[in-house]
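Hi support team,

I submitted a single chain yesterday and got back a structure, but I'm not sure I'm reading the token output correctly. Could someone confirm the output below corresponds to the sequence I sent? I've pasted both exactly as they appear in my results page.

Thanks,
R.
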Amino acid sequence: MDQISRRRFRRVILAVCLLFLASTALASGEESQASDDGSTQAQHSPTPVAASQNEINELKRQLAEQQRQIDELRRMLYAQTKPVDNGSGAVGTAGRTPAESAARVVGEVASLAPMFPAASAATPPPVVQQPEKKEADQPAAPLQLQIGNAYLTPIGFMDFTAVFRDVATGTGIGTNFGNFPYRTATSVGGNLTEFRFSPQNSRLGMRIDTQVKGTKVLGYWESDFLGGTGNQSVGNIAVTSNSFPFRLRLYWVDVRKGKFEFLGGQTWSLATPGRKGISPLPADLFYTQVIDVNYQLGLVWGRIPELRFVYHPSDKVTMAVALDNPEQYIGGSGGAGVTVLPTNLVPSYSSQLNNGTTTLAVPNLHPDIIAKIAFDPTLPNGRALHFEVGALARTFKVYNPLTAQHFTATGWGTQANLNIELFKGFRAVTNNYWSDGGGRYIFGQAPDLVARNDGSLSLVHSGSTVDGFEFTHKNFLLYAYYGGVYIQRNAISAPGNGGLVGYGFNGSANSQNRSVQEGTIGFTDTFWKDARYGALAFMAQYSYFTRNPWFVGPGAEKNTHMNMVMLNLRYTLPGSAPAPK
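Hi R., thanks for writing in. Yes, this is the structure output for that exact sequence:
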């Protein structure tokens, strides 16, 4: 308490004491006067008992009045001495700022009204020990780590897959759609079945989210253990120690500010159908719900290096253009070297055109150019709708050293995809693709081109479709798809090769398919999930395949077929999107 406050407090105490003494003296004087004048006023005064009662009542009234004044003074004093935070961290008096209090004290005259110091502040209530929350009451949180302004979220799952096929393909858990064996008496694979366990589809990765000067930055990495080719990547991989090679699936960074977005890295190609908008995130893409690591026959997709530019004019419309890593390809559904080259071109063109085994050695003129526009309107009943159309442009170039000539050809492709929720939980899907020189994007099931005898190039028409439905009820998912691929023949006259070369010519091998088809039905039952601990699901898939070649020799089968059953147990890490999607 400062000097001024102490002075004011002493004045208050003095005033109260004077008031009390004055009240006491007044009461005593009235009592003496009543006693002295009793003899002369007895006939007019009340009886002694009545007089005493009046005095008692008067004293009570005076005491009540003094108590009221004391209470009022207490409130006034408390209001003047109560600390008040004025918002700047300094404390004033009676709600005033320090400057206001000082200005008033300079010319202020202390009140002569009786005042008492304010009562001490009320003791705060005791702290009640809150009961410790049970584990089930704790808020759910993803498995996430913060470093500075960046958030790191582990992603992935652990798979244990079983696969059975009624012919022996020798391709592991990934199906070679176009080269499963014929069931002839001389075919070893066509007269055997195969069964295999595998953890290869297990995935591990990381998602990184941050903001830099108002720009959203998203990094994504994902890997699995499907490196190499089938089970042949390491000599003893299936004998003692199943040390499956770790491989890169996705590795990209996406930067978005406002309506503009840029992506660079290895990603799902822009040609891959989407479920929502145009997004590189796996949960926003359509690559079916199947267990097969090669997905569904007829699906257009790729995980390749890409530069992507995206524009978001609204929440319902998205436009994008991408530059994809190119590869001029003459392989096909029957495996390596399906397309037959003229004999005179084999030495030089085998290194210029990828036959399925040429690894990063093929020259390419420029990146493949892909454009897409996606629409995501909301239907009147609130159901979701996704529709997109896309286009592909490619250029192929070779050099014939025999004639010292360059040859080029321009390829193209178009696609139209629809994903619509017809009623709650039930989605119908159709994805359609047609191309002239775009077979590479149908999982390499068709060659892009063939070469003529003079070294010039001729493109191969090919197309595909994936149609079906997905139905989700609570934690249960049921799906069914039909996938088909059609490859048009392109026979080239080549006298030096016995008459014909190319694809689908008369006398070609039965590996040159005209069509391949797959019907699939399956389900995923997520019987346990928790945002903090992840999810555990059981998956099952059945597929039936047929393939028809362009040429059937005397006594040969016109087609072949295959049955396949896959089972899978999957534990998904917390924070990861359910996969596949």
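A quick pointer for reading it: The chain has two domains: 3-106, 143-572. Let us know if anything else looks off.

Best,
Support desk
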